[in-house]
Amino acid sequence: MASALIARFFGYLHTDIRRLCISVGTGDAAKTALSYAAVTNACDALLALLDENSTLRFHRGSEVGVYADWLGEKSAAEIDISLSLSIRQVLSVALHGLVSFFKIKSGEVGQ
């Protein structure tokens, strides 16, 4: 029941990415390289997860990137990501959840 509701919820979810810019700097070139690799892999995993489980949209002029700042002492991030659902979609998920709950409660499921 829960997996079907979660799948329905994420099927309706819209993810808009306007800006995802991360500058990685640590003050030490070796640490910057390792941190850059970790942040790049994390961003890649995040974008893959959002793409598989929601409707992922990039707007015209969107900027997405991870940059190594070899001379910088600190890392910085500028992120503008919105998640949205319409009221109709929220009500649809809630209605399906209630129907499934009452079917399980009455014993109709699994017979």
Number of strands: 3
Structural class of the helices, strands and pairings?
alpha+beta
Average pLDDT figure: 87
User: Rough shape?
Assistant: elongated
Instruction: Please report the distance between the alpha carbons of the first and last residues.
Output: 15 Å
Instruction: Tell me the fraction of residues in β-strands, as a range.
Output: 25-35%
Helix fraction, binned, reads 40-55%
Neighbour order of strands in the largest sheet: 2-1-3
Helical region count? Answer: 3
Q: What is the CA-atom radius of gyration, in angstroms?
A: 20 Å
- Helix and strand sequence: HEHEEH
Plain-language structure description:
It is a single chain. The chain has about 110 residues and is α+β, with helices and mostly antiparallel strands. The protein has three helices and three strands, in the order αβαββα. Strands 2-1-3 form a three-stranded mixed beta sheet. Strand 1, helix 2 and strand 2 form a beta-alpha-beta unit. The model has no long low-confidence stretch (mean pLDDT about 85).
